[in-house]
Design brief:
Largest sheet: 7 strands, mixed
Distance between the termini: 110 Å
Shape: globular
Length: 916
């Protein structure tokens, strides 16, 4: 039966409207899922970062070019069918796919100066508003924030939430490019690194309760990123208390009798460090240490020790190995103590100030320690004058306070240092929550957080209950880098202001170009700088005629040669027969202090393979004696300890100590194996004309400040994020180099261009590869105009363990099977295979798929075969008696971690009170 004509016309008119409505709803849902997944923890931030990485490297023309396989006219450098992303990277600048920032060259004197606001680099999802977000997404973003805050605060707080209107952003683009998100559900929390869905708990996170209106973008961002419910509640409580004006002091009294900044001027005279006729002062050294460089710490202790002084050592809560070594040190000397408490301090954190104040309180409460000056040092410090010279100098300047000010416009310092921002430390992170005002009535000052303070001033800041001290403690409890400003501000505004000397008697190695890399953004919502390590060329700086007694930073793993030079300058050259002068050892794992949390799965697989290499070498020493089992060993369990070994500032390899069973005697023997890396870099042959390429290296944990890999030797596993580093000679003009990553099955994982300036020495880049990487031998090529400059190969080792347990087949397929759909990035580079003469081998693909499921002995054989081409067992020694005649005692070798190291060994004090 025919319907009414009016109804038919209405239906025809309604159909397009319904379709448009449905499309709009679908678009909004997609945008919400995309944005929510990008803010849902670190995993979401990485996902969004990768999407934007790909958006930045593929414009529309390149995508069309890649699909069609046609060559553009006038582009001779692009081969037929190229699908490569063309990324122009400036030399020696780490790219994390954010808008380029200008590095300021202004010179600060403070130790961890902050050259720019963290908001300017907030495009990686660390703060709420994304700089590349387009205007059409504004409404969706507002709805996302509402949903997000509701989920964090619970339904009881919804009535208090209001959101300001989103202002349009000026943009030069006349179009909007939307990228499809990955199908990540909005309620799926991000997994921590290395975790597996089977280990997740289903318990919901309790919501934070808000007593005020939560409407600041910084606090909303902090709530979205905080991991624990306790931290989220602290964020809410702090923010609300600040809004109610109950958190920060509004006015603080000034007690300094002088107008303006009072500072004592000392004119340097070398005679001031000569013999003193006055009673010598006694010093209280507070050593704030972390990490694993126990031998460097012992060397510093030898240089500054005297029986007349006192030493209080605080070891970071996370450095259990170092804490054990420090306790052994303190047990040998009556004037050395270790704090009974330990804090987990972070760069820029409020906990650092709390640690100093508590250390000062402990020193004041030690009735048997009578000291005159407080001096703070780290293991990265070293004296540039003798202890005797320091004591003579301070004895002539008693009751003064040596503290370095920033030395520039105060308003600019406040802005750069973030003193006008509210911060909160929790979850080992400094969260920025919004703006605040500097209290009236005082002058805020700041600079270096390394100082020498008189006992009188230390007693004042610890015990005084006057408004200046108590209000400043309130203010700096929520301040970034508080130790760089608290003591300066209190001193300058106190009755002791006229005892301030604007000099902390330190020499710091600042290199703004390399030291300002925003390297702490993962633990603080701000960008800052830190000093570089001294190198041998810096020795003349220590001999300058000025009042400096300490210098920083030194790292023996970066350069021990400069420490040797400084030692010999101060104390004279050692005997040439002294063992271990050029060697340096540093522990990276100790089983009895680090347990199962001390090594990642990838490192554990490497060290087990290194152990097997050493046992194979020992067994090979009895060639032709099939029935002789004296040098045949079976490893027992996991490695006992691991050290890195350097000689003349060059990394030599790993020292893996392991407990084994001797097959001949069935007795346990402890062996140590030296495993050295092999370099597979080679230049093109025949050489490319005007080739500036010197070397290519691939690794992880790249340090752009010191220009080295902190993952020594490049122990790469499927879950690593590798970085390619190229070193260049200087040239007359710029050049553009193409870098190509090739996996073990000849799949081109990534390719990009690097713009190398004429003066550039180092370039580096980390492509956003989808994990897991396929285990096997990878190749990295560097080309110019598609002619080879040089190449290297590196191993991505399969995992042998997962969470310290042997890998099961299901886990092996997931962890060692390569990326999903065999795709490392969204775009395909298959069109480049003919250009690079990379045949697609079906047998290689089948072998990789078969290896992915290996477990047990076959997996170990595969792992050992891969690493045999990248590492070699150079030597093996025994820590005790051994039946194997080919094994030396470790103490008699020049390389073992048990061999003599006089420059770091401690002894009893001599008659003059010193131990060196």
């Amino acid at each position: 039966m025919a319907g009414h004509p009016c109804a038919r016309r209405l239906a025809r008119r309604s159909t397009p409207a319904l379709v448009l409505t449905a499309m709009a709803v679908l678009l909004v849902q997609t945008l919400i899922v995309w944005n929510f997944s990008s803010l849902d923890g670190d995993g979401g931030a990485r996902s969004r970062g990768k999407r934007e990485d790909r958006a930045a490297v593929l414009d529309k023309a390149d995508r069309q070019h890649a699909r069609s396989g046609q060559q553009r006219k006038g582009d001779p450098l692009r081969p037929l069918g190229k699908a490569a992303a063309r990324l122009k990277l400036r030399a020696d600048v780490h790219r994390s796919h954010r808008p380029k920032e200008k590095l300021h060259s202004d010179s600060n004197n403070n130790e961890n100066s902050v050259p720019r606001d963290f908001a300017s680099v907030d495009s990686n999802g660390n703060l709420a508003a994304h700089q590349r977000q387009r205007l059409p997404l504004a409404n969706a973003k507002r709805k996302l924030e509402q949903v997000q805050v509701q989920s964090m605060l619970g339904k009881s707080a919804q009535a208090a939430l209001k959101f300001p209107p989103v202002q349009p952003r000026a943009t030069a683009h006349n179009h909007t490019r939307l990228w499809r998100p990955r199908p990540v559900g909005p309620t799926s929390p991000a997994l921590p690194p290395g975790s597996h869905p089977r280990n997740r708990t289903a318990s919901p996170r309790p919501p934070a309760v808000a007593q005020c209106e939560i409407n600041g973008k910084e606090v909303i961002s902090a709530l979205s990123r905080a991991k624990s419910s306790e931290c989220r509640q602290k964020i809410v409580d702090t923010y609300c208390k600040h809004k109610e004006r109950k958190l920060m002091p509004e006015k603080v009294p000034r007690y300094c009798p002088a107008q303006g900044k009072a500072s004592v001027t000392l004119h340097w005279d070398e005679a001031l460090v000569g013999g003193a006729s006055l009673a010598p002062v006694r010093l209280a050294f507070v050593l704030v240490v972390h990490g694993r460089a126990s031998r460097q710490l012992q060397r510093l202790f030898r240089a500054i020790y005297h029986t007349s002084h006192f030493y209080l050592i605080h070891v970071d809560q996370r450095s259990n190995y170092l804490h054990r070594e420090v306790e052994h040190l303190a047990a040998r000397y009556p004037n050395v103590r270790v704090t009974a408490w330990r804090k987990a301090t972070i760069w820029g954190g409020a906990s650092l100030l709390g640690m100093y104040l508590r250390s000062m309180e402990d020193l004041l409460n030690m009735a048997d320690w009578s000291w005159d000056f407080f001096i703070n040092l780290s293991a990265a410090d070293y004296p540039v004058r003798t202890n005797e010279q320091l004591v003579n100098f301070l004895s002539k300047h008693r009751n003064l306070n040596f503290i370095k000010s920033h030395g520039r416009d105060n308003a600019r310092f406040i802005r750069k240092q973030g003193l006008d921002r509210l911060f909160l430390e929790c979850d080992t992170h400094m969260w920025r929550l919004g703006d605040r005002k500097i209290p009236e009535g005082i002058t805020v000052d700041g600079g270096s957080d390394w100082f020498l303070l008189s006992r009188e001033f230390v007693h004042y800041v610890v015990t005084s209950q006057d408004d200046l001290v108590t209000q400043m403690k309130r203010f700096y409890a929520h301040t970034l880098l508080p130790a760089e400003s608290f003591f300066h501000t209190v001193l300058e505004n106190s009755a002791l202001c006229q005892t301030m000397v604007d000099n902390n008697l330190r020499l710091t190695n600042w290199n703004r170009k390399l030291g300002c890399k925003c390297q702490y953004k993962h633990i603080v919502d701000w960008c800052g700088c830190s000093p570089n390590d001294f190198k041998p060329a810096d020795l003349p700086r220590f001999q300058a005629n000025r009042p400096t007694f300490f210098a920083r930073k030194f790292e023996a793993s970066v350069s021990q040669v400069v420490i040797n030079q400084l030692d010999w300058y101060l104390y004279g050259p050692p005997s040439p027969a002294t063992p271990g002068l050029s060697a340096y050892w540093e522990n990276v794992y100790q089983r009895d202090t680090d347990g199962t949390l001390g090594l990642a799965d990838s490192a554990l697989a490497h060290f087990h393979a290194f152990t097997r290499m050493g046992l194979k070498r020992a067994a090979g020493s009895l060639q032709g004696r099939a029935g002789d089992h004296r040098c045949r060993f079976v490893p027992n369990g996991h490695p006992d300890s691991v050290h890195i070994y350097f000689l003349s500032d060059q990394f030599q390899g790993y020292l893996v100590r392991h407990v084994t069973t001797n097959k001949e005697s069935n007795q346990l023997e402890t062996l140590e194996t030296l495993v050295t890396p092999q370099d597979h870099f080679k230049l093109a042959s025949p050489p490319h004309p005007n080739n500036r390429l010197l070397h290519v290296q691939v690794g992880s944990d790249w340090d752009p400040k010191e220009r080295l890999f902190r993952n020594w030797g490049g122990l790469l596993g499927p879950r690593e994020e590798p970085v390619a580093v190229q070193r260049w000679s200087r040239g007359q003009s710029n050049l553009t180099a193409t870098v190509v990553w090739i996996d073990p099955t000849n799949v081109i994982a990534a390719t990009y261009d690097i713009l190398v300036d004429a003066a550039a020495e180092v370039t580096h880049y980390r492509p956003p590869l989808n994990p897991p990487l396929r285990p096997g031998v990878w190749t990295l090529r560097v080309l110019q105009h598609w002619s080879l400059l040089g190449q290297t190969s590196f191993v991505v080792a399969p995992l042998e363990f997962h969470q310290w347990q042997p890998l099961q087949r299901e886990e092996a397929l997931r962890l060692n099977g390569g990326p999903p759909r065999n795709s490392y990035m969204d775009q395909s580079f298959h069109g480049l295979n003919p250009v690079l003469r990379l045949p697609v081998s079906l047998s290689a693909v089948e072998e990789a798929e078969a290896n992915a499921g290996l477990t047990g002995a076959p997996l170990r054989l595969w792992l050992d075969r891969l690493l045999d081409g990248a590492w070699s067992a150079a030597d093996v020694c025994s820590l005790g008696a051994s039946l194997c005649p080919a094994l030396q005692r470790c103490r008699r070798t020049p390389w073992s971690s048990a061999s003599p190291d006089p420059k770091s060994e401690l002894s009893a004090p001599r008659a003059n009170g010193r131990i060196r």
